[in-house]
Amino acid sequence: MSRVSSLLRWGQQKAPPRGADADPEPDPDPPEIMGRQTFNPIGQMYLLSAHTDIVRHLCKLSTTRFASASDDHSVMIWDTDTHQCIGQLRGHTMPVTCMLVVRHPDHDDNVLLTGSTDKCIRVWDLESTECVATWESQSGTVKSLADLRGGLCCSGGHNLCVWSISDGRLASRVKIDEAFDTDIRETIAVDNGNLIVAACDDKQLLAYRVKRGVASGGAELIPIKKLLGHREPIQCLHKLTEHAFVSGSLDGSVCLWDVSTLDLIRVLNFHEVYVLRDKSMHTYLYSVHHLTSVGDWIVAASGSGFVVFSRATGKLVGKQRAAHSAPVSKILLFGGADEMCVVTASIDATVKVWDVSSCCIAADAAEVVQASPILELARKMTPISPSKSRARRAEPRLIGHLHGHTGAVNDLMESDGLGFVTCASDRTVISWRNSIVEWQRLNEATLDAVTHFCPEVRAQTPTLQDAHLEENDSELQTPTKWQADV
Fold first, then answer.
1. How many angstroms from the chain centroid is the CA of residue 370?
2. Structure confidence by residue, pLDDT tens digits, 46-84
3. Which of 433, 326, 449 is nearest to 7 (CA)?
């Protein structure tokens, strides 16, 4: 059973009956949330506590390990099976601001890069958990890291720098125009690492071509174009494919860009009025803090909710404007067109799981996607039956409301197929698990342990399984006429 299938199937089951005192049936036509939360699929949580300050970032290292970065200057390595801290990376002298896993060109193993407010980038061996190199950026806080492939990576801050991973040499540096008094907030690498898109603290995107083979394996950054499409500062970038990416802004807009021409394809989630102004502050109603995608679907954390768009048509497929009581900080999307979940994390300290499968069943979007020559899908879409394609667009359905953190949730990461991981300002990391799948996994592990010490149990197990099948399948006990004749 896949992680999405198990999540949705258990989420669709009804809550246990409560007798005569049961609540009345929910309103059949609620404003946005389709019905009440039924059976919460995430029924198990593990509290991971090792940091002494705000935990801001998560990074997946492998199928069984992930890292958490904190303002306490440290990075912790966690095992997803035992939920134990198996490594502590200490060396930075100020808060850790970003992490990136890259392949080392010399020994073909993965290493972890960490950037910090101390203006340094440290390289960590994931096996020994030792710092093997320190790069001095000398350009202020390291706010972002991106893999350029071919043994190169880039960092963003007050400057945009390209580094050689093998020897830590600064291959190229571009100084941002000091007249704007701005830093690079986020960077992504597209076109197989040959193009860098940098989001500044203002309204502009900067595109640089990476010219390789300069000065014995170095690189040179060639400015190409300034991309203008937002009315307010850009908050996030997300790579869809090597040939397309999206950007989100405080004004609530999501811009879809073509890498080959660096032209704006379309603007999603556009609002004429997007800010409330008063004497003391401005409130941005639809600010986009995070973007993610799967296949043809783009999901944006917009204000206190989220919106789902079709990348090929630009149509709004589904929305939930009031998912939380405060802005959504991170979102996680996984699944196909017929089974899809959205997990939202908010600064209101809660995490929610939404079933958006019905929102993504749209025949017109599917037909355009299959014929679209511009954007290549990251994965094949699940075929959509004609009966489903004519269904009325439904709103996201709440299937899980999770309480565990006591502070703003800062990051959200998919785990090993059994759930996801969150970190928050309360100094904790929580691993959320699908209770049914977790129970099955623990039972299998227990059976393996028992049969290891008691071989006779292993020999009896197939017999017990066969007996269970025979007890529940009468057809196996009584042969058909065709079987008897044979």
1. 25
2. 999 999 999 999 999 998 999 999 999 999 999 998 899
3. 433
